[in-house]
Amino acid sequence: FSLTNSQQYSFEVILRTVITMTKSMLSSISSGMTTPSPWSLPLVAMVATPSPKTTTPLSKYSASIPFLRRPQHLTGEFAGDVGFDPLNLASSPESVAYYREAEVKHARIAMLAAAGWPLSEVFDRPLTELVDADLGLSLSPVLDAGDRVPSILNGGMENVSPLWWGFCLGLTAAVDVKGIMKSRHSDNDGSGEYGWDYGFDPLGLYPYDEEGRERMQLAEIKHGRLSMLAVTGFAMQEYVSKVGVVDETPIFFHPFHF
Questions:
Q1: Which of 168, 196, 227, 249 lies at a CB distance of 3.0 to 4.6 Å from 104, suitable for a disulfide?
Q2: What's the CA gap between 186 and 175, in Å, rounded?
Q3: What CA–CA distance (Å, rounded) separates 144 from 244?
Q4: Residue 241: in which H helix or E strand, if any?
Q5: What would the mean pLDDT of 240-252 be, rounded to a whole number?
Q6: Which of 140, 160, 150 is nearest to 117 (CA)?
């Protein structure tokens, strides 16, 4: 049979391709290569498959302040890291861990204070009257005339019992010493634990999976940051207005007493 010029050209291209593939396969086998040539793989294996987990590269700019560059040592290792460090305080990985420990501890105290501040203004007088009536004591509420709790700006710190101050200072010192010992121990054994992780979870709420733990850590630091702002707002508001936050916003604390 006879072939046209175009058919002859196509046949030559196919033949050259087959010869090239064969040479490549023979070369791979003879050289003992562990990775075969792409041409020697089955057709399905040559299809690109996505990796099971892709890591997102860090942005050059801060997620919290987009017009500023992301600080060098804020690499997203800790929950809630959005690259916010306009004063460049985190100048090394060690300082990042130090400031994170301080932030977590202050956040936890602030969450307790954000709840305890208004609750003390709501229940201080009723509880004092109840204890006096039942036990025959003559205790005095620590709230001032404006129903404000004792604080550095409000005054009245001397009205708090010295026994309570001693208990608070002792408990705080014990917790902090344990954190310091834990962080030093983890530096020696390389366990990767941090001074703010006390393993305190009496209700078993901390998840076992990595994704759930990251979600819990993010929730804790977000609530803690908001609480630090809230407590600062409580202190400034009462100092300026001379009125307790509960009396200024009764709808939040006495919703059924208009």
A1: 196
A2: 17
A3: 9
A4: helix 210-241
A5: 90
A6: 150
Alpha-carbon distance 43 to 245, whole Å? Answer: 71
If DSSP codes are grouped into helix, strand and coil, which group holds residue 5?
helix
For residue 231, how many other CB atoms are within 10 A of its CB? 20
Three-class secondary structure of residue 29 per DSSP = helix
* CA distance linking residue 229 with residue 242, whole number of Å: 19
Residues 217 and 79: beta-carbon distance below 8 Å = yes
What's the half-sphere exposure (Cβ side, CA atoms, 13 Å) at 193?
A: 17
Angle at 118 between CA 114 and CA 121, to 5 degrees: 145
Q: What is the SS3 assignment for 151?
A: strand
Instruction: Give the tens place of pLDDT for each residue, 73-88.
Output: 888 888 888 888 888 8
Q: What percentage of the chain's residues is helix, strand, coil (to nearest 5)? A: 55, 0, 40
Instruction: Provide the β-strand partners of residue 69.
Output: 61
pTM for this model (two decimals): 0.69
- 45-100 residue pLDDT tens: 333 333 344 456 777 778 888 888 888 888 888 888 888 888 888 888 888 888 88
Q: How many residues does the chain have?
A: 258
Strand partners, 61: 69
Q: Are 108 and 224 in contact (CB under 8 A)?
A: yes
pLDDT at residue 77, rounded to an integer? 85
CA distance 105 to 26: 66
Per-residue DSSP letter, 229: H
| Mean predicted confidence (pLDDT) in 204-225 | 90
Cα separation, 231 vs 116, in Å, equals 10
